[in-house]
Amino acid sequence: MDQLRITLVQTNIHWENIPANLSELEEKIWQTETGDVIVLPEMFNTGFSMAAERLAEPMNFTTFRWMKQMAEQSQALVIGSLIVKEKNNFYNRAVWTYPDGSFGYYDKLKPFRMMYEDKYFTPGSGSKTFTFKDWKIKPIICYDLRFPDVTRNHFDKKKNEIEYDLLICMGNWPTARINAWGTLTQARAMENSCYVAAVNRIGKDGNDVPFGGCSNVIDPRGRILIENSEEEFIQTIGINLKDLQNYRDNFQTHLDW
């Protein structure tokens, strides 16, 4: 499938209020003609809170079941991050749910120490790549974006295959550093010869920190295909696998990775 339609959900988040966020997001999604993939921000159901012990859910609980329901009803892959408790650990976990009810997940590798995320959350054990509609997709979460070693694409010479085609980033990126968000999303696209779809929240959190939006989709040349400022929006854009393959055939940086 050459064409993949991505729906970016840039929204404000009710602070530490899971029912309110799920209810509002459900309404917004149903009012929109969504694409093949629906991307939600980091900690879309709570905001970027360190109250992990109070807000964490086990897998197969309220938010996870809501994501499965949204995927089934919209016939789209739904992806976003939430606080998950597993045994005695808390994870900032990106979960993606397929329309058929199956799912996958990735735990944030780089907890944001400047907000003490590393004190409350356990980092993930490795990166993940998954396939959807012939597209190979790598998810990352917010602060991960700053680390090229986390997002590094790879080329298997024996199989003549590049690891992934689309990097999805879910963020709670403050307005104070929003210039870095734009620069880093473009850099990740160019250095990895891939598309980037990055969703950030807007509004203020419970600590009165403003968040800068600027959700975007970037092509492998670093060109901005879609971007918004600090306004709430849900917008869908198509990206093309054949165009990506043509670009890689004509500009073969992957042979020197």
Keywords:
about 260 residues; alpha/beta; Nitrilase/N-carbamoyl-D-aminoacid amidohydrolase; six-stranded mixed β-sheet; 16 strands
Sum up the overall morphology in one term: globular
CATH architecture: 4-Layer Sandwich
CATH H level, superfamily name? Carbon-nitrogen hydrolase
The share of residues in helices is: 10-25%
The total of helices stands at 7
- Overall average residue pLDDT: 97
Low-confidence runs: none
Kindly estimate the percentage of residues that lie in beta strands according to DSSP.
25-35%
* H and E string: EHEHHEEEHEEHEEEHEEEEEEH
Characterize the largest beta sheet: strand count, sense, and whether it forms a barrel: 6 strands, mixed
Q: What name does the CATH topology carry?
A: Nitrilase/N-carbamoyl-D-aminoacid amidohydrolase
Any overview of this molecule?
With 257 residues, this protein is of the alpha/beta class. It has a single domain (3-256), classed as Carbon-nitrogen hydrolase (Nitrilase/N-carbamoyl-D-aminoacid amidohydrolase), CATH 3.60.110.10. The protein has seven helices and 16 strands. It has helices spanning 18-30, 52-55, 62-74, 117-120, 148-151, 178-191, 241-250, and strands at residues 3-10, 37-39, 77-86, 89-97, 103-107, 130-132, 135-141, 155-156, 161-162, 166-171, 195-200, 202-204, 210-212, 216-218, 224-227, 233-240. The chain has a six-stranded mixed β-sheet. The two termini are 27 Å apart.
